[in-house]
TrEMBL record:
Residues 14-45, 65-90 are annotated as: Disordered. Residues 70-90 have a biased composition (Low complexity). PROSITE patterns: TBC_RABGAP. GO terms for molecular function: GTPase activator activity; small GTPase binding. Residues 375-416 form a coiled coil. Keywords: Coiled coil, Phosphoprotein. This is Rab-GAP TBC domain-containing protein. The keyword Secreted does not apply. InterPro entries: Rab-GAP-TBC_dom, Rab-GAP_TBC_sf, Rab_GAP_TBC_domain. Gene3D superfamilies: putative rabgap domain of human tbc1 domain family member 14 like domains, Ypt/Rab-GAP domain of gyp1p, domain 1, Ypt/Rab-GAP domain of gyp1p, domain 3. Residues 130-315 form the Rab-GAP TBC domain.
Length: 458
């Protein structure tokens, strides 16, 4: 595959819908890459690979400078000639670096297997810096191996079928990205294709069916790619990224994630953990939506999409990291609030703290201590606890059944004891009479047997 073919493929796979195309600032926040934000894996990169990262970081610096310049010019009535020249120069350099980025990601897509196998560390660093918008559709599909799935051929047939979840899906569609232009209006294209994908999946996986949080994930996919591709990517996410367990009716995986996150909170932020407990502020009250929607209902889309880029490559680990980073950033403020105040803080303050600099959040997330072995041990602990609880529930159910049967027997005995004594006497006399008659019949039968024997002898 050569680059022109790749770019044509990207054109076909990516609809003209972006998470937020309203401003240059939003674009820079999606692709921002500060020079001061290396992650741990960058230390092992080759000089050439570090040079590539340096170019991307320079692009981010210029993006940020250009964004600030635009804001400054818009807010000031004194637009000097020198400032315009400076802005023009920065824009020229930015354009050159954007072209380099386009070529770089085009090469990555062309040589995907090579990058995935032999340049994994550099690929990881680049994804953490942010996938360029026009490459997201194809890169997300490549990351989850959804480019050639047999289920894609079933999609059109699934749409012809009816699903028991249709009414539930219809009810929730309007509440999914209600402010986004693509999904506004009952008859919008966004709502139509979102309904199609959710319905198709509910037919493919009847155990899960439909869960509201999943619609936000599908909605983001539909902002990047056509519905058939979005359906395939969603199927892969459910199968390979633990999302299916999150969205099952029991939501067992969500319980596990909350259990693991609580351990991280207790270990890394013990004072905040004590404060939460003193206020009866449960982890599930603020963190459930983080795991169920992957921060898509927490942050504005440019920031949430950056987190989603990393999730596509590294899985749920980034959700734990970002969640803990948020608590570390806000510990001092949260310690001063009561339960109601913390609820408001999580809803109104935290979501917009990183609108202009998502890289600050990503950098902090990779400073969070995360031990995969410890998380695996916690998973075993949680499973053992749940198994014990299940056994206890079975034992409780058995004891309740036995108790119910004993109560029934006692009630029967009480009824017998409540029968008037004369009726019991009558019953005993009747029983004695039956015994006498039975004895007489037995004697008659014996006599008949003797007589028959004697007659047979003659």
């Amino acid at each position: 595959m050569n680059i022109p073919v790749t770019l044509k493929l990207l054109e076909m796979a990516s609809p003209a819908v972006s998470p937020d195309s309203s401003s240059h600032e939003a674009l820079s926040s999606v692709n921002s890459m500060p020079a001061c934000s290396p992650t741990s894996d960058s230390e092992n990169l080759s000089p050439d690979e570090l040079e590539l990262l340096a170019k991307l970081e320079e692009q981010n610096r210029l993006l940020e400078a250009d964004s600030k310049s635009l804001r400054s010019m818009n807010g000031s009535r004194r637009n000097s000639g020198s400032s315009l020249v400076s802005s023009s120069s920065a824009s020229s350099n930015l354009s050159h670096l954007e072209e380099d980025t386009w070529i770089l990601w085009g090469r990555i897509v062309n040589e995907w297997e090579e990058w995935r196998k032999r340049k994994e560390k550099l690929l990881k660093e680049l994804i953490r810096k942010g996938i360029p918008h026009h490459f997201r559709a194809i890169v997300w599909q490549l990351l989850c191996s959804a480019t050639d799935m047999p289920v894609k051929n079933q999609y059109s047939e699934l749409l012809k079928m009816s699903s028991p979840c249709e009414k539930l899906i219809r009810r929730d569609i309007a509440r999914t990205y209600p402010e986004h232009e693509f999904f506004k209006g009952q008859d919008s294209l966004g709502q139509e294709v979102l309904f199609n994908v959710m319905k198709a999946y509910s037919l493919v996986d009847r155990e899960v069916g439909y869960c509201q949080g999943s619609a936000f994930i599908v909605g983001l996919l539909l902002m990047q790619m056509p519905e058939e591709e979005a359906f395939c990517v969603f199927v892969r996410l459910m199968q390979e990224y633990r999302l299916r367990e999150l969205f099952k009716p029991t939501m067992a995986e969500l319980g596990l994630c909350i259990y693991q996150f609580e351990y991280m909170l207790q270990e890394q932020l013990p004072e905040l953990n004590i404060h939460f407990r003193s206020q009866s502020f449960l982890t599930s009250m603020y963190a459930s939506s983080w795991f169920l929607t992957l921060f898509l209902t927490t942050f504005p889309l440019p920031v949430a999409t950056r987190v989603f880029d990393i999730f596509m490559y590294e899985g749920l680990e980034i959700i734990f990291r970002v969640g803990m980073a948020l608590l570390q950033f806000n510990q001092a403020e949260l310690m001063q609030l009561d339960m109601e105040g913390m609820s408001q803080y999580f809803q109104k303050v935290i979501p917009h703290q990183f609108d202009s600099c998502p890289d600050k959040l990503i950098l902090k997330a990779y400073q969070v201590k995360y031990n995969p072995k410890k998380m695996k041990r916690l998973e075993k602990e949680y499973t053992a606890i749940k198994n014990r609880e299940m056994e206890e529930q079975i034992e409780i159910k058995r004891l309740r059944t036995e108790n119910r049967l004993l109560k029934q027997r006692i009630e029967t005995l009480e009824k017998v004891r409540s029968v008037p004594s004369r009726m019991r006497i009558h019953f005993l006399r009747f029983q004695t009479s039956l015994a006498t008659k039975n004895e007489a019949l037995h004697s008659s039968l014996s006599q008949l047997t003797v007589d028959n024997t004697q007659n047979a002898g003659h």
